[in-house]
């Protein structure tokens, strides 16, 4: 059995993408929270001078990269539900006993989850444009795509790692919500980390989403806390770690 089976990876990726496209309720459900933040916060604080936000940057400009990052986190982390859904239907047992490496299975699920998360993030970005969001430098859009991909891989890997330790969707869903929102609020997505207590600032510095949001702001708005190269490097490391952890934990899942 080879370590990587491209056909198996492609089959799992295609299965996830088809299931996502064929369930409009899932698409709508994952966009509800981001749109609420965009509409209510983006318009409510449009003329406010909030502390810590760079001079000359409107709040909608500051907010959109954070909400796109949150969408990636929310959608990608819940990709772990695909594993539990496959377990309930018996599909997981079938692929675990098939002559396919666990690494190929994990990579297929990560590829599918990352693709669906990218679709959701792109939809939020497009919806934000009529609300007043403007891209400062369109030439940096390829960098934005790389950042979104690294964010998606990081949190899909996280979702797969976590889901591999659960046997029911309810417990997984509750725990994900307890984890996702602290990660979101400690990323600087809604307000600068510099305005938070020292402990919260420290937690923000070890949060992968912090670097994703900062990179998106740097590329889309031209206002970031860290150098863009540092943000991308931190995301690359977090993506590699999460994929490795997800593959290792999933490799311990029993086939019966």
Point out poorly predicted stretches: none
What is the average per-residue confidence, as pLDDT, rounded to a whole number?
82
Biggest sheet layout? none
Number of domains: 1
Tell me the number of strands: 0
Total number of helices? 11
How would you describe what is shown here?
- The protein has 256 residues and is mostly helical.
- It has one domain (6-250).
- It is 71% helix and 0% strand.
- It has helices spanning 6-21, 24-44, 59-77, 81-89, 91-97, 102-128, 141-163, 169-185, 198-205, 208-220, 228-250.
- The longest helix has 27 residues, at 102-128.
- The chain is elongated, with a radius of gyration of 18 Å.
- It is a multi-pass membrane protein.
- It is found in: Membrane.
- InterPro entries: ABC2_TM (IPR013525), ABC2_TM_bact-type (IPR047817), ABC_2_transport (IPR000412), Nod_factor_ABC_transporter (IPR051784).
- Its main location: membrane.
- This is ABC transporter permease subunit.
Architecture blueprint of SSEs:
Layout: H1 6-21, H2 24-44, H3 59-77, H4 81-89, H5 91-97, H6 102-128, H7 141-163, H8 169-185, H9 198-205, H10 208-220, H11 228-250
Helix pairs in contact: 1-6, 2-3, 2-6, 3-6, 3-7, 3-10, 6-7, 6-11, 7-10, 7-11, 10-11
Main location: membrane
Subcellular location: Membrane
Keywords: Membrane, Transmembrane, Transmembrane helix
């Amino acid at each position: 059995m080879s370590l990587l089976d491209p056909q198996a990876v492609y089959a799992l990726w295609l299965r996830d993408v088809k299931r996502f496209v064929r369930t409009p309720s899932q698409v709508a459900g994952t966009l509800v929270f981001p749109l609420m933040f965009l509409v209510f916060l983006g318009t409510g604080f449009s003329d406010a001078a909030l502390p810590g936000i760079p001079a000359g940057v409107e709040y909608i400009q500051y907010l959109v990269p954070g909400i796109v990052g949150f969408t990636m986190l929310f959608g990608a982390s819940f990709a772990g539900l695909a594993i539990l859904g496959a377990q309930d239907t018996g599909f997981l047992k079938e692929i675990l006993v098939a002559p396919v490496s666990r690494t190929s299975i994990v990579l297929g699920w990560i590829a599918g989850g990352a693709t669906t998360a990218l679709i959701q993030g792109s939809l939020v970005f497009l919806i934000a444009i009529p609300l007043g969001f403007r891209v400062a430098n369109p030439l940096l859009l390829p960098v934005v795509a790389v950042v979104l991909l690294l964010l998606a891989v990081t949190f899909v890997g996280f979702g797969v790692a976590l889901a591999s330790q659960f046997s029911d969707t309810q417990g997984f869903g509750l725990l994900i919500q307890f984890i996702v929102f602290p990660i979101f609020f400690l990323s600087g997505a809604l307000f600068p980390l510099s305005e938070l207590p020292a402990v919260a600032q420290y937690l923000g510095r070890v949060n992968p989403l912090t670097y994703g949001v900062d990179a998106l702001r740097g590329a889309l708005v031209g206002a970031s806390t860290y150098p863009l190269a540092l943000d991308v490097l931190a995301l690359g490391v977090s993506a590699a770690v999460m994929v490795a952890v997800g593959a290792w934990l999933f490799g311990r899942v029993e086939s019966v």
